[in-house]
Write a structure and sequence with these properties.
By secondary structure, the protein is an all-alpha fold. It is built from four helices and no strands.
Length: 90
C-alpha cells in the first residue's frame, strides 16, 4: 500500500512544487541567484554590498524548501487517509 501512496504523491507533487516555485521565484535566474547567495559567505556579500540581497535570497530558498517539505508531509497524510477510507469500503 505504501507504494501506491508514494506513486500518487510523486504524480501530483511536481505540479505542486512548480506552483510553489512560481509563487516564490520570478524565474529560474532568480532561483539561481538565491542558490548562489546561499553558498556565498555573508562576509563576502557584505564586502560586495549585497548583504541584504544575500539574506533575502537565502530566506527565499529556505522558505521554498520548508514549504515543499511541509506540503509533501501534508499530502502524504491526506492520500494515506483517502486510501484507508477506500480500503474500508471494500
Amino acid at each position: 500500500m505504501e507504494i501506491i501512496i508514494v506513486a500518487l504523491i510523486l504524480i501530483n507533487i511536481f505540479t505542486v512544487y512548480k506552483f510553489i516555485f512560481k509563487f516564490i521565484f520570478t524565474d529560474l535566474d532568480d532561483f539561481n541567484e538565491s542558490l548562489r547567495y546561499s553558498f556565498t559567505p555573508d562576509i563576502i556579500s557584505l564586502f560586495r554590498r549585497e548583504y541584504w540581497k544575500d539574506q533575502f535570497g537565502e530566506f527565499k530558498l529556505g522558505f521554498f524548501i520548508a514549504i515543499c517539505i511541509i506540503v509533501t508531509i501534508v499530502e502524504y497524510g491526506i492520500v494515506n487517509v483517502i486510501i484507508q477510507q477506500i480500503l474500508r469500503l471494500i
